[in-house]
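Entry 14. Ran structure prediction on the chain below.
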Amino acid sequence: MLQKATPSVVSVYTARIVKVANSGGSSAEDELLRRFFGIPTPQRDNRFEEPEERRVPQGVGSGVIVSNDGYIVTNNHVVVDQSGDDADEILVRLTDGRELEATIVGRDALTDVAILKVESEDLPVIAVADSDNIEVGDVVFAIGNPMGVGLTVTQGIVSATHRTIGIYGDDGYENFIQTDASINPGNSGGALIDTKGRLVGINSAILSRSGGNIGIGFAIPSNLAVNISHQLANQGEVRRGFLGVGISNLTPDMAEAFQIEELTGVLINDVEEDSAADAGSLKRGDVIIEMNGKKVESANDFRIKVGNTIPESEIELVVIRDGDRMTLNLKVGKSAGRFAASANELLDGVAVRELDDDLAEHYRIPDGVAGLVITAVEGNSPYSRNFSEGMVILEVNDVEVRSVHEAREKLHSGMNKLYMFSRGRTGYLAVRVD
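Output, structure tokens:
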């Protein structure tokens, strides 16, 4: 079983290219990575030469081969630096000793999934299981490259499913498998497999005060990881389904009030006008208990199920309305990712809203500031380096803006001048629009 799965797991090494003065200083930091990348130890001569480009070791992780022509799934955080930018160089080491240069095909910060590509054929592909079928107590094995020591296998059980720990923020899609199989730094992006050698998860995170394993590890379910990686590989982006409903978990009191026998399902608190949910006849007070024949466990579970659905495709929902069970078929709309609505997209991957009292309180923006607050920036947006959530656009090309329409009218092709408020300060930002 392990002999079948292990060759499909690879070690991932990243580096960045920096310009540094030739000071000749030598450091033992990341010596293992220096040896791997063939980076020479700096010498103590020529310290006054002009700055030169050097490869600096960045990190170690793992990945899983999912196609024989070179596609590898890993974690987004494995292939980016602390600022969220792509690593300059990525090298992959296979179990047979081969070392291959990899490129990033796509990545999704909201699920922490990335897909890499190496130029090789006939690679060993891992078998994939339906992660919806795993249960607490199932035996699992974690395969990866912990601390860069080399491919390692640890054993444990599934401790819990459908875990949410909040590491991806309010807009992230978390539905972790929790395991006590030993997971340490470097395991990220590696495989969590079942007793048949099939992939059930991509190891992603641990909870620990020391940074080491204490038996609380988390893996992205294979169904979610494979869906995201396929979208990134085939279309270069993640297209998430969207219904347009406000939902909450079903409490015992609510279940009794809405005549629901089991504490599963989600309560619809509101339905957006002209949304997919509105067109599909969902109503406030409905309780959704099933989607496409599978139980809805929680609000987070339903959000992920809908998000994983291809926009414009049809779904079947089982709902309880006024105590009666009924089935509805409706077409899923398209989500603008982290955006509340695509109409709020000012620039490619940048969503804004008119600043009001609630948003000002949420983002801690002082009185007297007026403009458009940035509510979301997609990780793959070409403007992700320019903007961050909570910044306020005060002026576009020297004209005050108070609505998305006004801002769009003032933007033009080429370089634009934006006057911004951020973290108590104001300043200008130059942004090119194609």
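The chain has four domains: 2-118, 131-235, 241-334, 344-433. Will compare against last week's run tomorrow.
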